[in-house]
Amino acid sequence: MPSSNSQQIDLGAGEVRDLRRVFDHLACHVERTNLAKTLQARTDRYQRLQNFVENPSAASPVQNSEGQDISKYQAPNELKLLHEEIQDLKMVQKRIRDDPNKKISIRDLDAALKSLKMVCTKKELEYMIWEVDENLDQCVDWHEFQLMFYRNTTDQTGLEPFELFNIVQFMTYDEDFKGHITEDDTMSTLFARHGRENLEAQMTKLFGDQLKSAGGEGILTLDQYLKAVSVRQVKSKDIEYTVTTGSMLKQTTAVG
Predict the structure, then answer these.
(1) CA-to-CA distance for 256 and 246, rounded, in angstroms?
(2) Which of 69, 87, 186, 193 could form a disulfide with 61 if both were Cys (CB 3.0 to 4.6 A apart)?
(3) Phi, psi of 240 (to 5 degrees)
(4) Per-residue pLDDT tens over the stretch 122-151
(5) Alpha helices in 55-162 (DSSP H)
């Protein structure tokens, strides 16, 4: 396999945009999620205190850490401290968001997949990272992420590792990371990649009996999607293989 530094990555603007959205969602996922929860809690308390200060008789009482009601004379001081803390948290958020060197760790991938209702073992997560980890730092950076996607979308052999790619491709379809995709979510990408003449076949291959035209709901969960794309035909000089998730099974059919 060519080194990551020597291989050219030629992706369309739309593909780069979708990949960037997914990468930004996965990179530092655990830190960003914890930070967002803390920021929301501080913001909620700030709003409650502000309501109390503006209208003490109408607003609900606000307690301190010892469970005692805060007086209207104590509230302004805490409001000032909360405001400073909220601004600091927002600055940390921006730093993480704008960090050009941010990466996807095993913990990040695990947490993001759990939010999509997919639970993997530590070994499975490590393998997904290892597949694309060119510099062996046990993480995936932006360059490795793009390279992984490019190698898979241009692979003519079926031998390119695809565990992480399949998940990322699903997430490019799932714009809101809601855990399921529709026919409409996938159609434009499949059309651009396979052409009008092959679109129907690709939709059938992907959705199967879930197609609306076949009486289905036209929706796939991540688990259903992975089952549909987990088999690839591998062509070598003399034999044809079927590659499934984590295994390779040799078939007797020769390739002409």
Answers:
(1) 27
(2) 69
(3) -120, 135
(4) 999 999 999 999 999 999 999 999 999 999
(5) 75-98, 106-115, 122-132, 142-154
